[in-house]
Design brief:
With about 100 residues, the protein is mostly helical. It folds into two domains: about 25 residues, no CATH class; about 70 residues, no CATH class. It has six helices and two strands. The protein has a two-stranded parallel ribbon with strand order 1-2.
Length: about 100
């Protein structure tokens, strides 16, 4: 889904950067029914959009510790849920990492 979404980005430099960053990923999540089911539940419980819920469900499926986004609505929606996943913006993530010993 991420590659598909990226193809709609109107900014060529951003598309290239997203592809570059995607190559650095060590885990790729393939579509499975459990992710779809969990995304549907996240969408309902957290009032997330379908795409946002799918992204979060993929992160949970991959057992990610952090989910970074610049979408304040997504951060707020995820905050309504007990995910066991830190959902934050990149600036807050970097700040949190800087204070770690």
């Amino acid at each position: 889904m991420h590659d598909d979404e990226n193809s709609f980005c109107p900014f060529p430099a951003r598309r290239v950067e997203i592809i570059r960053l995607g190559r650095a990923c060590s885990i790729r999540v393939s579509p499975v029914e459990a992710i779809r089911v969990q995304a549907h539940e996240l969408q309902r419980a957290g009032r997330l959009s379908a795409k946002d819920a799918l992204h979060v469900a993929c992160a949970l499926h991959a057992k990610a510790d952090w989910f970074l986004t610049c979408d304040d609505q997504l951060i707020k929606g995820a905050g309504r849920l007990n995910l066991g996943l830190h959902v934050s913006n990149p600036v807050a993530y970097v700040a949190a990492q800087a204070i770690q010993p």
